[in-house]
Design a protein that fits this description.
Elements lengths: L11 E10 L3 H46 L17 E10 L3 E3 L4 E3 L1 E24 L2 E15 L25 E4 L3 E3 L2 E3 L1 H5 L5 E2 L13 E3 L2 E4 L11 E10 L11 E9 L2 E3 L1 E2 L5 E2 L1 E4 L4 H42 L3 H31 L4 H11 L1 H15 L1
Parallel strand pairs: 9-15
Antiparallel strand pairs: 1-6, 2-8, 2-14, 3-4, 5-6, 5-7, 5-13, 8-9, 10-13, 11-12, 12-13, 14-15, 14-18, 16-17
Family: Belongs to the TMEM43 family.
Protein name: TMM43 protein
Keywords: Endoplasmic reticulum, Membrane, Nucleus, Transmembrane, Transmembrane helix
């Protein structure tokens, strides 16, 4: 592994304490009312997120099923078959570009679809940690600010620091990051559209071991070019530059063979373009590696499923948080009484959990109603389970 250089300077820190009077009942009630509005907006947004997600998931699944039933694989990628004009085709082959990508400032040249220059600056970074406690009837907030030097790819604005004196960063970088993209990319005789080129994102770090220092003020150490007098002990404002590439487009003795991809797209002449499905979706797929058409669609269906469940979970969490904020006013009304306060807090959390679960399932069922009515009915019945379980415990307690 190449050597990684870091700061040897001591970590600097200071503590600031602020004091404010303990909020009264009316003040806390006012804050809770504001939280109720935020909770209501979050609650309503969760319905939209869940409902739209179900429609998107079904539309994508239908399009993928349609694509799998229509896709064809040409006999050769080195000739354009007229009979496949306008059809959804499955193409597998190595990437090829018309010219090298380069950064002459650093002597970097290689055949690839994309070449990325990543620039980092050595800067001060502020870390903030707060703790709140009550003392002598007042609320005190103790905030600990610490400062350390780190390599960062974005400018850290030191003017926002609690203490800028002694921790000032430059306002701009002398060298900027950028990504160069090949204008024309081919697989055999076929040219990739811009949407496919965008999907070539398998970036790998470029080894600089065989390159020389491009300039007297630039020093190469490991896989970085340093704009620094001493890379081992950098100073604030020093730069380091690294490179990465995606889609190697020619066999290279050091980097290996040209990158192979699998594409599913519409053939128009020698162009690979988006394919519009009957459900109104588009298919324009690129996977890194050699896959059959069936494997590509299986991977896409799995990806669609993971995305769907992820958005369902996000929708449920938004609904749960919204209900918590909307019902928090009940907690505020009894927080003067410790016993009632704890019981109410537990009850509100249980209510929010059950209600969010039931409403999420009902919203999912509504999203499926016009596409898969039997599944929607089953999910709707499942949504009633938390309510039934909660109600069955009430008579049991009354009998006691």
């Amino acid at each position: 592994f190449p050597p990684q250089y870091s700061s040897t300077s001591n970590r600097r820190e200071h503590v600031k304490t602020t004091t404010s009077p303990q909020p009264g009942f009316l003040e806390r009630l006012s804050e809770t009312s504001g939280g109720m509005f935020v909770g209501l907006m979050t609650f309503l947004l969760s319905f939209y997120l869940i409902f739209v997600n179900e429609g998107r998931a079904l539309k994508t699944a239908t399009s993928l099923a349609e694509g799998l039933s229509l896709v064809v694989s040409p006999d050769s990628i080195h000739s354009v078959a007229p009979e496949n004009e306008g059809r959804l085709v499955h193409i597998v082959g190595a990437l090829r570009t018309s010219k090298l990508l380069s950064d002459p400032n650093y002597g970097v040249h290689l055949p690839a679809v994309k070449l990325r220059r990543q620039v980092e600056m050595y800067q001060w970074v502020e870390t903030e940690e707060s703790r709140e406690y009550t003392e002598d009837g007042q609320v005190k907030t103790e905030t600990r600010y610490s400062y350390n030097t780190e390599w960062r790819s974005e400018i850290v604005n030191s003017r926002n620091f609690d203490r800028e004196i002694g921790h000032k960063n430059p306002s701009a970088m002398a060298v900027e990051s950028f990504t160069a993209t090949a204008p024309f990319v081919q697989i055999g005789r076929f040219f990739l559209s811009a949407g496919l080129i965008d999907q070539v994102d398998n970036f790998k770090p470029l080894s600089l071991s065989k390159l020389e220092d491009p300039h007297v003020d630039i020093i190469r150490r490991g896989d970085y070019f340093y704009h620094s007098e001493n890379p081992k002990y950098p100073e604030v404002g020093d730069l380091r530059v690294s490179f990465s590439y995606a889609g190697l487009s020619s066999d290279d003795p050091d980097l290996g063979p040209a990158h192979v991809v699998t594409v599913i797209a519409r053939q128009r002449g020698d162009q690979l373009l988006p394919y519009s499905t009957k459900s109104g979706d588009t298919l324009l797929l690129l996977h890194h590696g050699d896959f059959s058409a069936e494997e590509v669609f299986q991977r896409e269906q799995k990806s669609n499923s993971l995305k769907t469940w992820g958005l369902r979970a996000a929708g449920w969490m938004a609904m749960f948080m919204g209900l918590n904020l909307m019902t928090r006013i009940l907690y505020t009304l009894v927080d003067w009484f410790p016993v009632f306060r704890d019981l109410v807090a537990i009850g509100l959390k249980a209510f929010a959990f059950c209600a969010a679960t039931s409403l999420t399932l009902l919203t999912v069922a509504a999203g499926w109603l016009f596409y898969r009515p039997l599944w929607a009915l089953g999910i709707g019945c499942l949504a009633l389970v938390p309510i039934v379980l909660a109600r069955t415990r009430v008579p049991a307690k009354k009998l006691e």
